[in-house]
């Protein structure tokens, strides 16, 4: 039975190709803005998860 992986086995050539495609799609100027937005989203998600964990710990006490 084959296991399904989200990214499978990505090697260096595949990562380079993906990076080039992203660079072509968004351009050099938009990539920092895109990464900044992704970083803010991840931080917001982590803060939300931490808030839920804190609420659960308070409820258990």
User: Order of helices and strands, N to C?
Assistant: H
Please indicate the percent range of residues in DSSP E strands (runs of 2 or more): under 5%
**Low-pLDDT residue intervals, each spanning 5 or more residues:** none
The radius of gyration computed from the alpha-carbon positions, rounded to a whole number of angstroms, is 18 Å
Q: How many distinct beta strands? A: 0
First and last CA, distance: 44 Å
Question: Which geometry do the CA atoms define?
Answer: elongated
How much helix is in the residues?
over 70%
How does the major sheet shape up?
none
Number of helical regions: 1
Based on helices, strands and strand pairing, what is the structural class? mainly alpha
Query: What is the mean predicted local confidence, pLDDT?
Result: 83
Task: Fill in the keyword field for this structure.
61 residues; mainly alpha; 1 helix; 0% strand
């Amino acid at each position: 039975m084959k296991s399904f992986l989200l990214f499978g086995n990505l090697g260096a050539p595949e990562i380079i190709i993906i990076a080039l495609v992203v660079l072509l799609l968004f351009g050099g100027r938009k990539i920092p803005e895109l990464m900044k937005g992704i970083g803010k989203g991840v931080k917001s998600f982590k803060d939300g998860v931490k808030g839920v964990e804190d609420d659960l710990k308070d409820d258990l006490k």
